[in-house]
């Protein structure tokens, strides 16, 4: 997606450990016009699929999923990462290891909001090692739903997540794939 790549080049910054900061339009301040174009693009890329629900993970995934859902006209469910006492006790759970934070956390979705046989599209902001996406796929499997595909805004193509998901035969659509970062310059696939 050309508009997105241009924006990453213009406003993205690089941090230690190949971390791409996109706080000015995606992860902290949010550009809703850009997000709306991202939502349209996801809709176009998954136009031939039957989708009942979009599943994402808090926090950054929610805004993206919600604007995208306006183009799909389906509900959004987000997995919770915080151990909330108010959360339904009847949940599907999965463990997710974060390389960035070097810790494992539990993600949870109430059994109420995933019904057997539903067709689920996963949407998230970043795909790096793919652990968050794997956790969501695990929850979809536990709920006996179908993973229709995964839509990612920025894939870090030099990390393993994307290839692992594609190898499983899951349709993965990343709107920008960063192939490498060379001397402070982002190279797209
Ligand atoms: P993985 O899910 O692909 O295995 O990624 P990893 O554990 O390495 O990433 C942990 C968090 O960092 C995730 O957000 C992921 O979206 C984000 N992330 C990974 N690489 C980058 C990057 O280069 N730039 C930015 N901005 N984020 C990156 P999270 O912990 O779920 O946080 P949030 O959704 O609450 O913001
Ligand atoms: Na995220
Ligand atoms: Na994030």
Please name the defining characteristics of this protein:
189 residues, alpha/beta, Rossmann fold, two-stranded antiparallel sheet, 6 helices, glycosyltransferase, xanthine phosphoribosyltransferase activity
Notes on the structure:
The chain has a six-stranded mixed beta sheet with strand order 4-3-7-8-9-10, sandwiched between helices. A two-stranded antiparallel sheet has the order 1-2. It has a single domain (2-188), classed as Rossmann fold, CATH 3.40.50.2020. 32% of the residues lie in helices and 35% in strands. It has 189 residues and is of the alpha/beta class. The protein is built from six helices and ten strands, in the order H-E-E-H-H-E-H-E-E-E-E-H-E-H-E-E. It has helices at 2-11, 23-27, 32-45, 60-72, 131-142, 161-167; strands at 13-15, 19-21, 53-57, 76-79, 91-98, 103-110, 119-127, 146-156, 172-182, 185-188. Bound molecules: guanosine-5',3'-tetraphosphate and sodium ion (NA) (2 copies). One sodium ion binds at residues 57, 60-61, 124-126. 5-phospho-alpha-D-ribose 1-diphosphate binds at residues 128-132. Converts the preformed base xanthine, a product of nucleic acid breakdown, to xanthosine 5'-monophosphate (XMP), so it can be reused for RNA or DNA synthesis.
Mean pLDDT: 96
**What Rg do the Cα atoms give?**
16 Å
**Strand content of the residues, in percent?**
25-35%
Stretches where pLDDT is under 50 for at least 5 consecutive residues are none
Shape: globular
Helix share, percent: 25-40%
Q: How many strands in all?
A: 10
Overall structural domain count: 1
Largest sheet: 6 strands, mixed
The top level CATH class name = Alpha Beta
Based on the structure, what is the oligomeric state of the protein chains? single chain
Judged by helices, strands and strand pairing, the structural class is alpha/beta
Strand order of the largest sheet: 4-3-7-8-9-10
Order of helices and strands: HEEHHEHEEEEHEHEE
Q: Hetero groups bound? A: guanosine-5',3'-tetraphosphate, sodium ion
Distance between the termini: 11 Å
- Looking at the structure, the CATH topology is Rossmann fold
Pfam families: Pribosyltran
Protein name: Xanthine phosphoribosyltransferase
InterPro entries: PRTase_dom, Pur/Pyrimidine_PRTase, Xanthine_PRibTrfase
Family: Belongs to the purine/pyrimidine phosphoribosyltransferase family. Xpt subfamily.
């Amino acid at each position: 997606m050309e508009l997105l790549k241009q924006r990453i080049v213009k406003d993205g910054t690089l941090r230690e450990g190949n971390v791409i900061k996109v706080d000015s339009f995606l992860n902290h301040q949010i550009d809703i016009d850009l997000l709306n174009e991202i939502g349209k693009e996801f809709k176009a890329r998954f136009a031939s699929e039957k989708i009942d629900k979009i599943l994402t993970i808090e926090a950054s995934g929610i805004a993206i999923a919600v604007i995208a859902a306006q183009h799909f006209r389906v509900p959004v469910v987000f997995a919770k990462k915080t151990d909330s006492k108010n959360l339904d006790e009847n949940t599907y759970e999965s463990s997710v290891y974060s390389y960035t934070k070097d810790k494992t956390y539990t993600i949870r979705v109430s059994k109420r909001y995933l019904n057997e046989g539903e067709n689920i599209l996963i949407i998230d902001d970043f795909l790096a090692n793919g652990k968050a996406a794997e956790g969501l796929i695990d929850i979809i499997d536990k709920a006996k739903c179908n993973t229709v595909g995964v839509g990612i805004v920025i894939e870090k193509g030099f990390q393993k997540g994307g290839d692992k998901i594609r190898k499983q035969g899951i349709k993965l659509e990343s709107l920008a794939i960063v192939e490498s970062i060379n001397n402070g310059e982002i190279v797209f696939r």
